[in-house]
Inverse folding.
């Protein structure tokens, strides 16, 4: 079991370290890459917990989809340092306030934290029971939490419709090729054969 | 304090006994997968050149060794003793990290692939998702390579290939969902065992087609090899790479090609199972059937490359989002309904 302990501290340490580096990295691309590294370590922690399905979903959704888009956007936009510095001065106060708020919240909660005496017997990880992870989550997601699941689906649908509407352009602004026109194009409509006399031009 | 040390001593002792043996066995297994894989990649390049040559009525490589069989090793040695060139303004760390990352991912997928009954390094319950997760990570290798080399060509190539891979991953995911629905498990072993009566290629043939086309797009192969369109982008995301970093990209790409063929075999062609469970077919060992099916799919990869012209970028995107995605979505719903129907009527 010493291996499990070592792996836990490795993943946990790297998660914290990379989260910190995400915050302090200068270049936005480096910041995004550290974020991705953090997600991967988080997935490692899930595997150690015995919930391999969550780990894989975590990697597919966060690293494979969300973070790729982050990276895309960050790579495309070149930050204009001077303008950014001016604006940041004003915004700087708000994150500090939020940080203080959450920090004090954590101190309050963790300060008064204690395990219930029966906590160790309540361990209900699916790996201890003889069902696979996927079955366990499916059983609970589509029965007990069916309504919440549907609501989440509708929210995602709304987001998708919003994204499509935002990027949709009027038909006039679009340039698109009509395949049928291209196929039906005849030689005589496109090519004009001229006999050009020398030193006279067309 | 003494207790503490004795605890550690015991842990280390048990580690040396049981766990070390386990590690040794694991390393042996990993080598038994990786070495044949690398050899396979080497000979796949030769196979590709020979097949394309035959299609174009040429001879192909025939100078190094009998029938040019040592050509891949000559190419490898050539790449090995070239100089590693790092562009002036490139981000050195990321520039060198990208090929290593790509190659590592291309190898690490093979941990869950079953080559025969109970013949895989690790038989995990969510094998399909593992494969999908790792292959969705491989986009990063390309993006980082394109970004870190600080070159317009490389960056454009990287953006293109990333957009292409993300688009086709969606329909690939739906294809995998139909297979999982039919098999009733995400374990790769059980997916193969579920095909004992008939291979999934029979009821799911349209999905097999979509899988193969998406596989071409995922591996950046012809007719979807826009990321390395020679005429516009010189060679895409890996323009600035030379020597071993380039070789790592190359190896990773070809290993991914083999991987896609292997996945096609497992999902649709019944993995290591013989076509009929009767006498003359069962004489051949599992691995031989597996290898034959993978070779057939690899031949299709090369065949398509030699036959079809390259797609245009907008055509590629339209095919992915407007044809494959809706079609595979409808097919998922139909398959799910059909499976439920079979279960209700008690014939499954």
């Amino acid at each position: 079991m010493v291996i499990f302990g070592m792996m836990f501290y490795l993943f946990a340490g790297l998660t914290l370290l990379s989260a910190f580096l995400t915050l302090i990295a200068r270049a936005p691309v480096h910041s995004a890459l550290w974020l991705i590294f953090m997600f991967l370590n988080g997935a490692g922690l899930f595997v150690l917990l015995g919930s391999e399905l969550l780990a894989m979903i975590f990697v597919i959704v966060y690293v494979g989809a969300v973070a790729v888009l982050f990276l895309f956007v960050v790579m495309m936009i070149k930050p204009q340092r001077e303008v950014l510095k001016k604006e940041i001065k004003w915004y700087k106060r708000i994150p500090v306030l939020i940080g203080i708020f959450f920090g004090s919240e954590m101190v309050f909660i963790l300060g008064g934290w204690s395990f219930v005496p029966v906590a160790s017997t309540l361990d209900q990880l699916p790996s201890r029971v003889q069902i696979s992870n996927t079955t366990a989550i499916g059983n609970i997601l589509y029965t007990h939490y069916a309504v919440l699941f549907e609501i989440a689906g509708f929210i995602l649908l709304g987001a998708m419709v919003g994204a499509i509407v935002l990027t949709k352009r009027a038909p006039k602004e679009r340039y698109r090729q009509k395949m049928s026109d291209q196929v039906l194009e005849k030689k005589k409509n496109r090519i004009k054969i001229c006999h050009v006399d020398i030193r006279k031009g067309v | 304090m003494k207790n503490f040390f004795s605890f550690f001593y015991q842990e280390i002792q048990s580690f040396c006994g049981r766990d070390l043996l386990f590690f040794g066995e694991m390393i042996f297994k990993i080598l038994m997968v990786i070495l044949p894989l690398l050899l396979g990649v080497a000979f796949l390049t030769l196979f590709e050149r020979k097949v394309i040559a035959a299609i174009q009525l040429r001879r192909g490589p025939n100078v190094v060794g009998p029938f040019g069989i040592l050509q891949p090793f000559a190419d490898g040695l050539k790449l090995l003793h070239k100089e590693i060139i790092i562009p002036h303004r490139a981000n050195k760390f990321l520039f060198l990290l990208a090929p290593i990352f790509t190659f590592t991912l291309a190898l690490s997928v093979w941990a869950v692939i079953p080559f025969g009954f109970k013949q895989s390094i690790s038989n995990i319950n969510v094998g399909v998702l593992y494969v999908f997760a790792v292959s969705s990570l491989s986009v990063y290798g390309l993006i980082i390579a394109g970004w870190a080399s600080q070159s317009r060509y490389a960056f454009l190539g990287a953006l293109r290939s990333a957009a292409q891979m993300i688009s086709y991953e969606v329909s690939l995911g739906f294809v995998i969902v139909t297979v999982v629905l039919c098999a009733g498990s995400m374990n790769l072993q059980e997916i193969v065992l579920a095909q004992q009566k008939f291979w999934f290629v029979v009821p799911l043939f349209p999905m097999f087609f979509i899988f193969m086309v998406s596989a071409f797009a995922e591996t950046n192969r012809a007719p979807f090899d826009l990321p390395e369109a020679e005429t516009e982008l010189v060679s895409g995301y890996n323009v600035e790479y030379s020597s071993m970093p380039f070789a790592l990209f190359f190896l990773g790409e070809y290993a991914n090609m083999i991987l896609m063929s292997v996945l096609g075999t497992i999902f649709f062609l019944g993995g290591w199972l013989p076509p009929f469970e009767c006498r003359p077919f069962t004489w051949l060992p599992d691995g031989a059937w597996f290898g034959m099916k993978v070779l057939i799919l690899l031949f299709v990869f090369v065949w398509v490359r030699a036959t079809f012209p390259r797609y245009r970028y907008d055509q590629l995107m339209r095919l992915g989002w407007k044809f494959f995605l809706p079609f595979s979505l409808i097919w998922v719903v139909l398959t799910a309904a059909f499976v439920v129907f079979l279960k209700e009527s008690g014939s499954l």
